[in-house]
């Protein structure tokens, strides 16, 4: 049986790491919905879109294509690989306000549902278990303390040669947390039936193992 697994959580809490690993071990497709919002954000930045202008936002979304490269799962914006660019500071600073726009969410949620409708998918984001797939076979809500999240994001940026200070990273995460959890449309919430996984003190393998054990729990005997 092909399951739909929804993983939600704040930025840099480890949800994408878990989702990728679970998808690989299960032979499922991994969908990084955060990357989809980042691609839209990059497009808006390139086109200098005023996100307060509903007409400009609607026009920018018309004909836009966001996808992933088969095999590598790199972000693909209008046929261009933009994986590195969408992880930069400019996009990170702007993605939460863009993701809070109702028109953007109305445009992208049907695409996310279409990607996962056949099952056999692990999808991570902020509203997957509450909005995109409220009937997912397994819902996880991933958490980690702010110090751990800051260190992880800083290490990620350093590995990609993207300059940033620890203070800048911490401020960015706090700002995104606030926007994501207080926006009017599809705020970040823990689904009532989601299982919480706090990986602040877990090794990567223990964290992934905990997720896989929960999958075993929904499999028929």
Explain what this protein looks like in three dimensions.
- This protein has 221 residues and is of the alpha/beta class.
- The chain has one domain (4-211): Rossmann fold (3-Layer(aba) Sandwich).
- The chain has 9 helices and 8 strands.
- A 5-stranded parallel beta sheet has the order 2-6-1-7-8, with helices on both faces. It has a 3-stranded antiparallel beta sheet with strand order 3-4-5, with helices on one face.
- α2 (33-47) crosses α4 and α4 packs parallel to α8.
- The chain starts with a strand and ends with a helix.
Short structural description:
This protein has 221 residues and is an alpha/beta fold. 51% of the residues lie in helices and 15% in strands.
How would the blueprint of this fold be written?
Layout (H helix, E strand, L loop, with lengths): L3 E6 L5 H12 L2 E4 H15 L6 H8 L4 E3 L6 E3 L2 E2 L7 H11 L2 H15 L4 E5 L2 H5 L5 E6 L2 H14 L6 H17 L12 E4 L5 H15 L3
Parallel strand pairs: 1-6, 1-7, 2-6, 7-8
Antiparallel strand pairs: 3-4, 4-5
Q: What descriptive keywords fit this protein?
A:
alpha/beta; 3-stranded antiparallel β-sheet; 221 residues; Rossmann fold
The number of distinct structural domains comes to 1
Give, in spatial order, the strands making up the sheet with the most strands: 2-6-1-7-8
Name the CATH homologous superfamily.
Answer: P-loop containing nucleotide triphosphate hydrolases
Q: Quickly count the helices.
A: 9
Order of helices and strands: EHEHHEEEHHEHEHHEH
The end-to-end distance, rounded to whole angstroms, is: 12 Å
Return residue spans where pLDDT drops below 50 for at least 5 consecutive residues. none
CATH architecture: 3-Layer(aba) Sandwich
Give the helix proportion (percent range).
40-55%
* Named CATH topology: Rossmann fold
> Over all CA atoms, what is the radius of gyration?
17 Å
Strand content: 5-15%
Largest sheet composition: 5 strands, parallel
Q: Estimate the mean pLDDT confidence.
A: 94
- For the secondary structure, the number of strands is 8
CATH class assignment: Alpha Beta
Q: What best-fitting shape do the alpha-carbon axes yield? A: globular
| Structural category | alpha/beta
């Amino acid at each position: 049986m092909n399951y739909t697994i929804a993983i939600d959580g704040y930025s840099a809490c480890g949800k994408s790491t878990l989702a990728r690993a679970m998808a690989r071990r299960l032979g499922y497709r991994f969908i990084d919905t955060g990357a989809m919002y980042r691609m839209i954000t990059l497009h808006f930045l390139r086109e200098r879109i005023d996100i307060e202008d509903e007409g400009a936002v609607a026009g920018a979304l018309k004909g836009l294509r966001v996808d992933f490269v088969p095999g590598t799962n790199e972000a693909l914006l209008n046929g261009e690989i933009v994986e590195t660019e969408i992880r930069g500071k400019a996009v990170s600073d702007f993605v939460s306000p863009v993701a809070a726009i109702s028109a953007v969410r109305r445009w992208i949620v049907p695409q996310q549902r279409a990607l996962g409708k056949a099952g056999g998918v692990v999808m991570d984001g902020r509203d997957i278990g509450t909005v995109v797939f409220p009937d997912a076979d397994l819902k996880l809500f991933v958490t980690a303390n702010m110090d751990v999240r800051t260190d992880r994001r800083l290490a990620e940026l350093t590995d990609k040669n993207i300059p940033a200070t620890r203070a800048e990273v911490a401020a960015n995460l706090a700002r995104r947390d606030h926007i994501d959890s207080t926006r009017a449309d599809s705020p970040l919430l823990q689904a009532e039936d989601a299982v919480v996984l706090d990986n602040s003190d877990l090794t990567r393998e223990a964290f992934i193992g905990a997720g896989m054990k929960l999958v075993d729990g929904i499999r028929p005997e």
